Amino acid sequence: MSSHWRLVARNTAWIIALAIPVGAAIFYIYSEAHAGGFLYGVGTGVLSLVSMALTVSLLTGRSRVVRVIGAVSFVVRYGFVMLILGVPAYLGLWPVVGMLGGFAGVYLLENVILLPGMMRAVGEARV
Asked: Any transmembrane segments, and where (predicted)?
């Protein structure tokens, strides 16, 4: 496993480990629907994180065809996120604030945890 994918796997585990107690607190304070919406948003964020890692792997590929597929997947990712968050919000399946809070929380953790780790990995690769 490359250092890129190890970093993604480690951070995905951190995000899931942090989301479980937060989801339990939301369940205790609000309701099952809010906690379910939050965990759905977290799951969507984690899928988006993994798809971003796949996109980066494709964009840094050696073949021109692979890089083009990576560029297309970059656009498709955002359509996927709009669809997977928009449809349940439109249908009222989950409380929207909890769902978007979980998704935004993953992005926040991704920036707080993943970016410093990536900067260290890039620094180590240059040495």
From this structure: 12-31, 37-58, 65-85, 91-109
Contacts (Cβ under 8 Å, ≥6 apart) of 106:
15, 19, 41, 42, 44, 45, 46, 48, 49
Q: What is the pLDDT of residues 51-94, one digit of tens each?
A: 888 888 888 878 888 888 888 888 888 888 889 998 988 888 87
Q: Which two tokens stand for residue 98?
A: 């909890």
| DSSP structure string for 77-111 | HHHHHHHHHHHHHHHT-S-HHHHHHHHHHHHHHII
Q: Supply the pTM of this predicted model.
A: 0.83
Alpha-helix residue ranges (DSSP H) falling in 30-93: 32-59, 64-91
Contact indicator for 38, 102 with CB cutoff of 8 Å:
yes
CA gap 120, 10 in Å, rounded? 14
pLDDT per residue over 9-53, tens digit each?
888 898 999 999 999 999 999 989 999 999 999 999 999 888 888
